[in-house]
Amino acid sequence: MHSEQLLPLAALIIFAFGVNLPLGYLRETSRKFSLRWFLLIHLSIPFIIALRSMFGFGWSLIPVTLACAVGGQILGGRLRRSRLG
């Protein structure tokens, strides 16, 4: 990886995590396996794919961005539960 790719990589990772925080927070208010629950989990994926493609990253970054998206969903859900409990 070249040094000029570090800033776009950081932006992609921050976006994947950051956009999923509020989605995970909202997901906690939905009934599990409902349409809304499904949409809140998958809503960010097309945007992450578009950003990854726009920055010129290949398939090798999919596990990294997926892990960040899942981490954002989990942390967002935990934040919601901690505010209620």
DSSP helical segment count? 4
Proportion of helical residues: over 70%
Q: What's the domain count?
A: 1
Q: Overall pLDDT, averaged?
A: 96
How are helices and strands ordered from N to C?
HHHH
Category from helices, strands and their pairing? mainly alpha
Shape: elongated
Q: How many E strands?
A: 0
Terminal CA distance reads 44 Å
Biggest sheet details: none
Written overview of the protein:
The chain has 85 residues and is mainly alpha-helical. The chain has one domain. Helix content is 74%, strand content 0%. It has four helices and no strands. The protein has helices at 6-27, 35-42, 45-54, 62-84. Helix 1 runs antiparallel to helix 2 and helix 1 (6-27) packs parallel to helix 4 (62-84). The chain is elongated and about 45 Å long. The model has no long low-confidence stretch (mean pLDDT 96).
Q: What key phrases describe this protein's structure?
A:
mainly alpha; 4 helices; 74% helix; 0% strand
Topology diagram in text:
Elements: H1 6-27, H2 35-42, H3 45-54, H4 62-84
Helix pairs in contact: 1-2, 1-4
Summarize the structure.
The protein is mostly helical and 85 residues long. Helix content is 74%, strand content 0%. The protein has helices at residues 6-27, 35-42, 45-54, 62-84.
